[in-house]
Recover the amino acids of this structure.
């Protein structure tokens, strides 16, 4: 797949929580078959740095509950790895359109769950023995944090709420090459402790979402108050019409806008 830069504007529809007639549309959770479609597209179009389905879930969880809105132009390249989706490629590939539609629906389910006070359950893959390790989910969450790392610092230093990140960091660094980052050294994590960590990451998403809620509201209000600047100079009533007709603006295109 060709490499280029994503323009955020063509992907403006990639936003959570669609609103119809002032009412938020409750998203429908993805089925197993739809999750399989997401996974197959990741495997087909991604590279060695792209995410699997479990990492994607952790990554989106970090974007949903984090302190700042991350535009598609930033998060899509991280999902795909080194390859970046071209706008032309996106529109030419029905598989990619399907993938993005399903991904945003899954995003919306997360938002709806957290906003309604429901219980968030991380999407975890099982190994050949039917065991969920949750390492990839935690790694995906950290990759989401990295997109706004400077805004996550305060939570890391927060003595009261920083504990939410402990199970995530523990699972993300369980097999780190740097032994100093491994929370339990070379000792394997017991099934009981792993279960506790998995329960901890589920609770952490809710806690972090609430922790940053005020910050997200302030950001949203600031964006809503942003002044739209005029790029094209204003056309006066007696100026030539910009359409090139040769008539005055007030007698041409301005006739509709002025009356």
């Amino acid at each position: 797949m060709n490499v280029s830069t994503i323009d955020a504007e063509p992907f403006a529809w990639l936003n959570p929580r669609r609103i119809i007639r002032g009412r938020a549309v409750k998203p429908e959770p993805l089925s197993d078959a739809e999750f399989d479609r997401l996974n197959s597209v990741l495997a087909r179009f991604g590279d060695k740095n792209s995410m699997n389905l479990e990492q994607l879930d952790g990554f989106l969880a970090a974007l949903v509950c984090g302190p700042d809105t991350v535009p598609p132009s930033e998060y899509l390249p991280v999902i795909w790895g080194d390859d970046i989706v071209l706008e032309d490629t996106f529109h030419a590939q029905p598989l990619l359109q399907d993938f993005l539609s399903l991904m945003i629906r899954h995003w919306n389910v997360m938002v709806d769950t957290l906003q309604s006070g429901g219980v968030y359950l991380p999407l975890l893959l099982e190994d050949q023995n039917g065991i969920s390790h949750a390492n990839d989910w935690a790694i995906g969450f950290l990759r989401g944090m990295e997109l706004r790392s400077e805004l996550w610092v305060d939570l890391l230093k927060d003595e009261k709420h920083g504990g939410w990140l402990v199970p995530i960091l523990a699972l993300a660094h369980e097999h780190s090459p740097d032994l100093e980052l491994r929370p339990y050294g070379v000792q394997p994590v017991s099934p009981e402790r792993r279960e506790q960590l998995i329960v901890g990451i589920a609770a952490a998403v809710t806690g972090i979402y609430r922790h940053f809620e005020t910050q997200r509201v302030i950001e949203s209000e600031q964006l809503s108050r942003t002044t739209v600047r005029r790029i094209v100079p204003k056309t006066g009533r007696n100026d030539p019409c910009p359409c090139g007709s040769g008539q005055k603006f007030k007698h041409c295109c301005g006739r509709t806008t002025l009356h």
